[in-house]
Amino acid sequence: MCSSYIVMAQEKDVELWVGFGIDQRIGKKMTVAFEQNTRFNNNIGATKNVFEELSLSYKFNKYLSGTANYRFGKRNSFVNGYNTEHRYNFDLRFRKKAKPLIFVFRTRFQSKYRSIHSSEDGFIPTNYNRNKFTFRFDLDRRVEPYVGIEVYYQLNNVEGNEIDNIRYFTGINIDLPKRQEVKVFYILQQEYNVNNPVTSNVIGVSYSYSLKRLKVKEKSKGGGGNPNSTRDL
Question: Has residue 192 got a pLDDT over 70?
């Protein structure tokens, strides 16, 4: 495994990711969110993929939350047009604040179906465990910088499971009036243990809007608070 990290030459690319999201809090612990995203690659000269996501998040307590997510997308094959993709995620997120630092750990089970209608093995999912570590800096201002790393580990590779993708990222969350937020970020994404690995420099921007919270009658007091954001890359 170590030799593949060193010997295989890396192609280089520049990508642009843009997205829009809207979410609705239900009571104090639940959030429903929708996102639309478009990603460009080949030095921002071609559309890589377009997808929509629907997610449901639940906050168990001030430290732990969970999210279920479905993504429908179209990916450019650059040969036979766009292939249809379906992806399912199940996340657990741990959040700990020690001001001014906020530490967030997210572990994800991901299952993706590629090329269902154009490939014989399209109904065989590709499964991953993705672990993401984020450090956010609470500066008591509307701008919140962050840095982090995410590691992709294969779960059902017939040739042996291993890490095949690592993301290093940094960015800022900009809190705007009337429940709006803009995120600007940079990702260094490196592929490993695959044919023709690519190192991508990703520039991204996303906008999100939160609807007014729907109040729900609760039998007992306690808990509460805004669930951690379900938006993820």
Answer: yes
